[in-house]
Amino acid sequence: MTDLLTVTDFTFAYPDQPATLKHVDLSLPHSQITLLFGQSGSGKTTLLRQLDPALRPTGTHTGTVTWSPDVTVRPHQLQVGFVQQHPDTQIVTDKVWHELAFGLENLGVPQDEIRVRTAEMAAYFGIHQWFHRDVSTLSGGQKQLLNLASVMVLRPALLILDEPTAQLDPIAADDFIHTLVKLNQDLGTTILIAEHRLDAVLPLADQVALMTRGEITVAGSASKVVQALYADHHALTAELPAPTRVYAATTGLRRADNLPLTIKTGQQWLANQSLPVASHFAPPAEPAGKPLIRARDLWFRYDQDGPDVLRGVNLDVYGGETLAIVGGNGSGKSTLLSLLGRIYQPYRGHINLAGKRLARYADAELYHHNLGVLPQDPQSLFVRSTVREDLYEVIDGHRQRTTPAYDLEMSKDAAVSGMADLTGLTDLLDRHPYDLSGGEQQRLALAKVLLLRPRVLLLDEPTKGLDAVNKGQLGDILTQLHQEGVTIVLVTHDLTFVAEHADRVGLFFDGQLATVQPTRRFFAGNSFYTTAANRLVHSWCPDAITVREVSTWLHATRS
């Protein structure tokens, strides 16, 4: 098969920085889906941007990026279409229909052709149902679908996507990935996608490439890459689909030609094992004692004449617990977290923290040692030109003096050094925060919040943009905080992370909390809002919710 694009011996360095890409070789075959994955900061985004002339970063390079000679970009078309991680950063107009037409207008396409092409694309993507809506009223999934449609209406020769599902809920993420497959099958679009969510993408990719420290270290079929990861004892095996990890833990990959990559193929393998149907794990305990946070009858809207985003929400959070809140994009999860953090005030209802109305706390009392808030956009916390200075900023600078933000006898240098070590930032202290990868920025924002030593930590999508290694490190940090008695409330789409670290789970739907349950009970009772591990073995062991638990149960049935 001929290649649409070939990258040969490509090396790239940002100004005054060591090489980010090193001797990269990668071919993108015509009409195939190529999955690029690797740890945060491995160079994935830099490589993707090298392939789009409009986004190519400043720096020095050697090597070549060569297009197939039979690629002809006609007038009013793009060579490369690029969909980014954050849905809002790519949207430039206020109406859906105008967003679809905007790129065509910039290319000078006649109005009659614009109408035809936008109508066709809106119908294909199902956007015709909200064609005239304000972009601000769309959910995250709808915004990302609009971004994809706005790129595809320009008929690019190559579609590149940089972690496009990072901010989508599980159902919206699956829908988005299946839309990409439909594009590939219906139009023959060549697709290059960088993604950490391998459960959905790995089984659908024609080619998989692993990037490690700026190099493509292995590329080929999914089966070949999986075998290479396990042979190398690579940490990113933790990012592979749950059926693959269970199979590897149970069989040692003795039959890699039959490797299960999906729930369907995993269940087909398990169906031949003659497994008993039984509960294996103890029932979860209910929380005890008085709530540390009590929210009652919360109502909130962003505009006086706008719709209610929260409608009569009641919530108890117990001291020392980790509570996860999940639900669809736009359901109200982040809004509730903002009210708990007193970023916004409800127009009806109230919140108590440790028996005192949240509204009655002075700012210095509330945000020093009581509440720590990690927002969804980590860049909103960055105010200095280096990581080091940003860490010192949150504790009132380098000068060793007692302030509300820093009242320890420990030297500030020791505090910053220890926090940088804890969050994996030691080698990045002299970098500009905006030059960090998405995962590295997330860790920097968390480090700034933790330097204030809060007893209640509010986290909005803390795992987005993190690979399995960094996610594991974050989980270790939260486990340590949990053991020290810190109360944690996190809003997230990462159900696997929730299953491993949360004591209870709340499901948000239509501005209300539909339920709050102990984690195991919550996942065992759901079909879609549950983990891939639970879906895999639900017919045999419905209360197993993590890959570790499934593997433990399988070993127990065989002993």
CATH topology of the largest domain: Rossmann fold
What is the 3D shape?
globular
Q: Which value, in Å, is the CA radius of gyration? A: 24 Å
Domains counted in the coordinates: how many?
2
CATH level-4 homologous superfamily of the largest domain? P-loop containing nucleotide triphosphate hydrolases
Q: Judging by the overall fold, what is the CATH architecture of the largest domain?
A: 3-Layer(aba) Sandwich
Walk me through what this model shows:
- It is a single chain.
- With 559 residues, the protein is of the alpha/beta class.
- The chain has 2 domains: 3-237, 3-Layer(aba) Sandwich (Rossmann fold); 291-532, P-loop containing nucleotide triphosphate hydrolases (Rossmann fold).
- The chain contains 19 helices and 19 strands.
- The chain has helices at residues 44-50, 96-106, 111-125, 140-152, 170-187, 198-201, 222-231, 242-251, 263-271, 333-340, 363-367, 387-393, 412-422, 438-450, 468-483, 495-501, 519-524, 532-537, 547-558, and strands at residues 3-13, 19-29, 33-38, 60-67, 80-83, 158-162, 190-194, 207-212, 215-220, 291-300, 310-318, 322-327, 348-353, 356-357, 371-374, 456-460, 487-491, 504-509, 512-518.
- A 6-stranded mixed β-sheet has the order 5-6-7-3-8-9, sandwiched between helices. A 6-stranded mixed β-sheet has the order 15-16-17-12-18-19, with helices on both faces.
- α2 (96-106) packs parallel to α4 and α8 packs parallel to α19 (547-558).
- The relative contact order is 0.11.
- The mean pLDDT is 90.
Concise description?
With 559 residues, the chain is of the alpha/beta class. Helix content is 34%, strand content 22%.
